[in-house]
Write a structure and sequence with these properties.
It is built from 13 helices and 19 strands. With 467 residues, it is of the alpha/beta class. It has a six-stranded parallel beta sheet with strand order 2-1-3-4-5-6, sandwiched between helices. The protein starts with a helix and ends with a strand. The structure holds S-adenosyl-L-homocysteine and iron/sulfur cluster.
Length: 467
């Protein structure tokens, strides 16, 4: 309550300030947000945008000329941090042109104290640092900056569950929507910084989730993705407890034409009960993103993943039996400390056994504060890159086979926009998240259509509408 009252108070103050500035300058102050990283960050940025809007900022699509520039950062890999810092360097000139520009950093990267120190030392033109637990305090921190100046930071841990249910949202699209259901992560996979920067697991109540999804469906949204670092842990922290399979069934009962996706499902908590729920619920897509990370039991143990390759393959078998046509996608880390050629061969073997529609592959990145950062790592970067290239090549062939297997099948497609390869065609996605191009015009946009696949490409399939 306190946080909400404070937010309303400071929102009004910043708004009044912005209205006065608009009168003086003859134009409304603009805010620009750039998002790095995962879907959770995209969802958070929609809330940041909602708050900016309430504070009287126009939303700009470029930093030049903006009064407020926010980078919503990622910390999962060094590369993501490097990109944010590189783009920050590029902002220096813009700030020199416009001394009143406020530059702020939010998100996972700045929830790490060593980075906040680094930014203070190396990027003195940054004004604001808003940690992952402080997002609802954005108006207060902006007001502090406006009235007191200096380097304003808040990376304190949350009090209570810190869920801030009432944050306004300005969604990026009008067809697809993100709905976070669980925040934080308690799994402590040894390579991963997320539990350190996003805090402990907190589930939203089923009432709040169901109200949000129903509102979206009434507002015309047709593709809803439930978000969480491990959606399978949903419901454990609330009273009365709930569960992810139960939540899926409740969402499936909401009337209307829409589809539901979810990510991410951790294999250690992916139960047969969940697979049964996916099979039973016609609105839940027949697609499971089930990040395996490695096919070697030794590496899976060192990663603290809590399952074996055989256990993972059993789940895949069960899902294939229960859900006809189910598609799997996955994340794989190559070059985890101590991974040798036989471990990597086990990963290739597993990838061949599963037959994923697509894979997100990553070179291991050492993250400060994680258990894996302390492990010896004797494999050269060249060897790791060679393994990554091999994995990509294996997946290129296998992924193509999955797409070829769709030829002759009829897919239910949510039609989105004009085709990329041929503007005379429309494009949409199947429930497996496969891009489908088909004959048709803009009148199909936002509608579900049945498309019979005639041709497969590496990254999409092409077909004709079935009347
Ligand atoms: N919660 C999700 C993953 C979130 S991070 C899950 O458990 O599946 C998304 C992906 O980034 C992970 O699945 C992993 O493949 C990759 N990743 C995370 N930390 C990494 C690191 N230190 N180096 C390389 N890849 C990493
Ligand atoms: Fe990171 Fe593991 Fe949590 Fe996913 S489940 S966010 S990989 S610690």
């Amino acid at each position: 309550m306190e946080v909400e009252k404070n937010r309303a108070h400071y929102t009004a103050l910043v708004r009044e300030y912005n209205e006065k500035t608009a009168e003086q300058d003859g134009r409304q102050p603009a805010g620009y947000i750039r998002t790095f990283g995962c879907q959770q960050n995209l969802s958070d940025s929609e809330k940041l945008k909602g708050m900016l809007f309430e504070m009287g900022y126009a939303i700009s699509d470029q930093p030049d000329g903006a009064s407020l520039v926010l980078f919503n950062t990622c910390a999962v890999r060094e590369h993501a941090e490097g990109r944010a810092l590189g783009n920050l360097t590029a902002l220096k000139a813009a700030k020199e042109q416009n001394k009143h520009m406020i530059i702020g950093l939010c998100g996972c990267m700045v929830q790490q104290p060593h980075l906040v120190d680094k930014i203070k030392g190396q990027y003195p033109y940054v004004d604001l640092v808003v940690g992952t637990h402080a997002i609802a305090k954005l108006p207060e921190l902006i007001w502090k900056k406006i009235t007191k100046g200096g380097y304003i930071t808040d990376i304190s841990e949350m009090k209570g569950d810190g869920l801030s249910e009432d944050l306004p949202t300005r969604r990026d699209g009008d067809l697809k929507a993100w709905v976070p259901i669980i925040h934080g992560c308690d799994n402590f996979c040894s390579f991963c910084v997320v539990p350190l920067v996003r805090g402990r697991e907190r589930s939203r109540t089923p009432e709040n989730v169901l109200t949000e999804v129903s509102g979206l469906v009434r507002g015309g949204y047709k593709d809803i993705t439930l978000l969480g670092q491990n959606v399978n842990s949903y419901g454990k922290t609330i009273t009365p407890p709930s569960s992810f399979p139960r939540l899926l069934r409740e969402i499936n009962d909401i009337p209307g034409k829409f589809r539901v996706r979810f990510m991410t499902s951790h294999p250690k908590d992916c139960t047969k009960e969940l697979i049964d729920a996916i099979a039973d619920c016609e609105k839940v897509c027949n697609h499971i993103h089930l990040p395996v990370q490695s096919g070697s039991d030794r590496i899976l143990e060192a990663m603290n993943r809590g399952y074996t390759a055989a256990g993972y393959l059993d789940l895949i078998d069960y899902a294939r039996k229960k859900i006809p046509g189910v598609a799997f996608t996955s994340d794989i880390i190559v070059g985890f400390p101590g991974e040798d050629e036989s471990d990597f061969a086990a990963t290739i073997d597993l990838v061949e056994k599963v037959g994923y529609h697509s894979l997100f592959t990553f070179l291991y990145s050492k993250r400060a504060g994680t258990k894996a950062a302390e492990l010896p790592d004797h494999t050269s970067r060249e060897e790791k890159i060679a393994r990554l290239d091999k994995l990509l090549e294996v997946q290129r062939v296998l992924g193509r086979k999955q797409y070829d297997g769709l030829i002759g099948k009829t897919l239910r497609v949510l039609c989105e926009e004009q085709g990329k390869t041929d503007p005379a065609r429309m494009t949409g996605r199947s429930e497996h998240n496969v891009i489908v191009e088909f004959n048709g015009d803009n009148t199909y946009a936002g509608k579900f259509v049945n498309v019979r696949v005639e041709e497969a490409l590496q990254w999409a399939v092409i077909g004709k509408i079935e009347k």
